[in-house]
Write a structure and sequence with these properties.
The structure holds 2 protein chains of 2 kinds. Chain A is an alpha/beta fold. Chain A contains 22 helices and 25 strands. In chain A, the strands form 4 sheets. In chain A, strands 1-15-14-16-17-18-24 form a 7-stranded mixed β-sheet, with helices on both faces. Chain B has a two-stranded antiparallel sheet. Classes of the chains: A alpha/beta, B mainly alpha.
């Protein structure tokens, strides 16, 4: 077959040509997109250990981490006259030292909110890089805070406030305890081994925060099928003790008790002693800590005290401001919980040790070496390790191989590190190895993959990653903020759980705003998809709010816009993920935002959570700690674009 | 009478004997129905949208139809399309040599098609299986070549408008019209390959190779060479589809083109091509993609079913069209 032989040679020549010319190394820089989390590869076999050795003097880091920042914090109280705030200020100062920021703390000489408002104005006038403050009175502080925002200064609230949405002030996020969550998680913990009847002892019915705590508790009880109610006590401990005693006489099956602070715990303990009840006879948990409560935790009467973790409020506020200014990374949610932090028998005696040397092991299902998405995560890990002076070793397989990852987790545990962080890519496969770490007393945190300790049914501390539903929900809120007639969520892969969750969030947000919306499925073929979108808008001409779920949806959407001759501002569009095209469209105003899962923060946050736990005994507040959605809009698109591929 | 003359005579017979009789009748019927019942169907915007949605799949379908008439399948056109788009994209941006980019984006797909043909001919494995395998192999090649990354540019390279640019001449005159130059390329390829099929000896050989390979080989035709060429053409046309895709959307990712092979086979069957080979028409392929595209637009415009259940409608259309085509064929 002579012609065929010649063709064989031609094919071989062609293959050589393919290998020789046009390798990805010639890829122009215009092609540095942020890939949607992509996993599988084809590559050979062994695990790679990438030791990340931070230097003692982190000054070697070039670029954004070096930029010094000046921050001003305004509080309604000071350590000088209220010792609660000493812990907050410790947090602030520690973070300032770790992250190389200069922080000035301002506060009144006594509780005086007018004075605090004046101090906020002073802070704005000093033109700092960022402002942290306690939103103790949103109405009183709204104007001065708005002046800061108008001046382009990022603002974060801590300790007091309800979030930018509820307070109706556009600061970034509120860092503090989530009262409802405290009651809810407390109830879950108390009812975990079973229970017959529960009661929430409220010493100040009508106080919104305390009522929220009981509401959370009641909901948790209801989910567990345990009847529960609220019992109001008074300011008088003798009265209160009798009220509790009479209640248990009338409800002898009550075996789950939640008190909301020392003012409720104290008469409760008196009741226990008077009734001759021993540790373990009933289940009790409380908010806050006191010497009495700490003693009762140790002797087993009380399962836990719930701490709002004031250290984390100060620390976190500084960190959020440095993230925004240096990397354009924004907090994921309007409320960033610092509490509830559960103090139980295992950590009630914890003594903070800021200079404790730490060896951490990270296990991932992918590596920067063969999946560039992970280079940004790696950068986050390295930056945090340098700032917080921790040794981090990153382990991962040479190709997508979950069995291999499970083995690496075992290896990691065997090395007996101080803490472990890992991607819970397959909870069922990883459950045993992770349990091995937990049994050995090693704190574990999950990042990038996982659904949280509750859903995954593995008792690690928290999962750090994007909350898909929240992304769609907040995206929808942003898009329709100025009004809208009809919305559509363009889904390029219906059935993908994450994408479906994004659309669900969007639809819920639209429903709350009273705007009709639905999901439009497109295909893999951009020409088909463009026509589908075009036909849809022909059939639904009032559609003016569009959400796409990634570059695969945004690309044909832009083609549709161009073909239809629509200009920036004619319709409202937001999308998930970033790409060169999306970044260009954010700049020209066509697209209001791109939503980033902020992989840098996944790596950084995982290190930080372990460090805070090991050095300061601080636990993450929620089972899921969102790193995304991180909104990239006209305000921060420049810095994000510059850092694409490294920090973003 | 020589076979060419016989074929020419056949083409002059009544419409019912044409291989595109069935699809044409179905399409005209569906078009009329949609015009009458679907609001906004008969607008320039909807009609130009129908044509545009059909161009990429249509280009691939031309090659698939040719190959199916020779009695073979090519399930690897998806990765071939992606590879072409990557090659074209990487080499045409930032002042790259446009001719070289074009050449590479057609040569490599040609070689990939050639490899398909080589495997089928040399090993005797059914093309369905062989190209199923190469689909995965080529997919891996695309992964390696692209380093797993989506590639996108925002550069406005002038030649892109030649391949898939907006037809301003028409678009600016008629409101809503969104015709693109890619339509010219598609129609041009359809006419070219239809001509080759019905008016050249090679086309004749293709029919014979698919319809009755034994008899055709006995007549001295190199059946293996014919099939091989069809594989190469299938690859080239998939490559051209990739070029058209990148020219307009300037984006390519690993998943680009996946699913196109089944869309193309469906369109070819609807367009009158017989699965076993030997009968069919490239114009029919065009009609097939247009019919599918028309139905999709109609469904979305009417909100008849959720647009993501469109696949069910295509399935019904395939069966219906196959029945109609068969019936009409049996009558002639």
């Amino acid at each position: 077959m002579k012609p065929v032989r010649y063709l064989v040679l031609l094919i071989l020549a062609g293959t050589l040509a393919l290998a020789g010319c046009g390798t990805p190394a010639e890829t122009p820089t215009a092609a540095a997109p942020t890939p949607v989390p992509a996993e599988p590869t084809v590559s050979p076999a062994e695990p790679t250990a990438v030791p990340v050795e931070p230097t003692e003097a982190p000054a070697a880091e070039p670029g954004p981490a070096e930029k010094p920042l000046n921050l001003i914090f305004v509080q309604h109280a000071l350590c000088a006259w209220d010792s609660f705030w000493c812990t907050v200020e410790n947090g602030i100062n520690q973070a300032a030292a770790d992250m190389k920021a200069n922080v000035t703390i301002l506060g009144p000489d006594q509780f005086d909110l007018e004075k605090v408002a004046q101090l906020i104005d002073q802070a704005v006038a000093a033109n700092p890089d960022g402002i942290g403050l306690t939103v103790t009175d949103p109405d009183l502080f709204r104007e001065p805070i708005q002046r800061a925002l108008d001046a382009g200064i990022p603002v974060v609230a801590y300790n007091a406030g309800s979030g930018p949405v509820k307070d109706n002030i556009a600061y970034m996020t509120y860092l503090g305890q989530d009262e409802y969550q405290g009651g809810y998680q407390g109830g879950q913990r108390l009812g975990a081994g079973g229970g017959t009847q529960g009661v929430c002892i409220n010493h100040q019915v009508g106080h919104a925060g305390l009522d929220a705590r009981c509401n959370g508790f009641l909901d948790a009880m209801q989910e567990l099928g345990i009847p529960a109610e609220v019992l109001a006590i008074s300011n008088d401990p003798a009265e209160s003790q009798t009220i509790i005693s009479d209640y248990t006489t009338a409800n002898p099956d009550t075996d789950v008790f939640l008190t909301l602070g020392p003012n409720g715990a104290n008469p409760f303990y008196a009741f226990l002693d008077a009734a001759g009840l021993k540790p373990g006879d009933v289940k009790h948990g409380t908010f806050d800590l006191s010497p009495e409560i700490a003693a009762r935790i140790k002797d087993g009467t009380t399962l836990f005290g719930i701490d709002q973790q004031p250290f984390l409020q100060g620390y976190g506020a500084v960190q959020i401001l440095t993230m925004v200014k240096r990397y354009g990374i924004t907090p994921a949610l309007p409320v960033t919980s610092t509490g509830p932090g559960f103090i139980d028998a295992s950590n009630v005696d914890f003594v903070a040790d800021p200079s404790r040397a730490l060896n951490l092991v990270f296990v991932q299902h992918a590596l920067c070496a063969w999946d560039s998405f992970w280079c940004v995560v790696q950068k986050g890990i390295e930056t945090a390790a340098a700032e917080m002076n921790a040794n981090v070793t990153v382990l991962g397989p040479d190709q997508f191989d979950l069995e291999k990852v499970a083995q690496l987790i075992d290896q990691g545990v065997a090395a007996n590190p101080d803490g472990i962080a890992l991607t819970v890519t397959d909870p069922d496969l990883f459950r045993e190895p992770i349990q091995g770490a937990l049994d050995a007393g090693i704190p574990v945190v999950a990042y990038n993959a996982g659904s949280g300790p509750v859903k995954d049914n593995i008792a690690y501390m928290t999962y750090l990653g994007q909350d898909e539903y929240a992304g769609g929900y907040q995206g929808g809120q942003r898009l329709a903020a100025g009004g809208g007639t009809q919305g559509v969520c363009i889904n390029h892969q219906v059935g993908h759980a994450g994408l479906d969750a994004r659309c669900n969030g969007f639809l819920d947000a639209m429903e709350e705003l009273g705007i009709p919306a639905e999901v439009l499925a497109i295909s893999n073929d951009p020409a088909e998809s463009q026509t589908i979108i075009s036909d849809y808008t022909t059939a639904n001409p009032d559609t003016d709010v569009f959400l796409t779920l990634g570059p695969n949806g945004a690309n044909p959407f832009y083609a549709f816009l161009d073909a239809a001759g629509l200009k920036p501002g004619d319709v409202k569009h937001g999308t998930f993920d970033l790409s060169p095209e999306i970044i260009a469209r954010i700049k020209d105003g066509t697209t209001l935002f791109g939503i980033d899962q902020q992989p840098f923060l996944q790596g950084y946050g995982a290190v930080q959570i372990l460090v805070l736990k090991l050095r300061y005994g601080i636990s993450p507040a929620m089972p899921v700690t969102p790193t995304g959605p991180g909104f990239v809009d006209k305000g921060n698109v420049e810095i994000v674009e510059k850092l694409a591929g490294t920090y973003r | 009478m020589s076979t060419i003359a016989a074929r020419q005579k056949m083409n002059r017979r009544r419409i019912f004997d044409s291989p595109i009789a069935g699809p044409l009748i179905t399409t005209v019927a569906v078009f009329s129905l949609l015009c009458a019942t679907v609001p906004h169907f008969l607008t320039m915007r909807s009609l130009s949208g129908i044509l545009n949605a059909a161009t990429l799949t249509g280009m691939v379908t031309v090659g698939i139809t040719l190959l199916m008439m020779a009695g073979e399948f090519d399930l690897s056109v998806g990765p071939i399309m992606a590879m072409a788009a990557f090659l074209y994209g990487f080499h045409s941006v930032q002042g790259g040599n446009q001719l070289w980019a074009l050449f590479l984006a057609l040569l490599i797909p040609a070689l990939m098609g050639a490899l398909n043909g080589f495997i089928v001919i040399r090993t005797g494995i059914p093309s369905f299986i062989a190209t199923l395998a190469t689909r995965f192999i080529y997919g891996g090649a695309v992964w390696l070549y692209s380093a797993g990354q989506m590639f996108q540019t925002i550069e406005n390279v002038p030649i892109y408008s030649v391949f898939n640019g907006r037809l301003d001449l028409i678009a600016d005159r008629i409101a809503g019209a969104n015709f693109r130059t890619s339509a010219f390329w598609l129609i041009g390829m359809v006419l070219l390959f239809q001509y080759v099929l019905v008016r050249t000896r090679f086309g004749n050989h293709v029919f014979g190779t698919g319809g009755n390979p034994g008899a055709t080989a006995a007549q001295g035709v190199n059946v293996k060479w014919v099939k091989f060429t069809c594989f190469v053409m299938s690859g080239v046309l998939a490559g051209l589809a990739g070029i058209l895709l990148f020219s307009q959307y300037k984006t390519v990712k690993i998943a680009t083109g996946s699913g196109e092979e089944l869309n193309a086979i469906a369109a070819a069957v609807i367009g009158g091509t017989v699965l076993t080979g030997g009968s069919g028409s490239v114009v029919g392929a065009l009609i097939g993609v247009l019919l599918i595209s028309m139905l999709r637009t109609g469904v979305v415009l009417v909100n008849l079913v959720p647009a993501d259940n469109f696949g069910a409608i295509v399935g019904v259309t395939i069966v219906g069209a196959a029945i109609i085509n068969n019936w009409i064929r049996n009558r002639s």
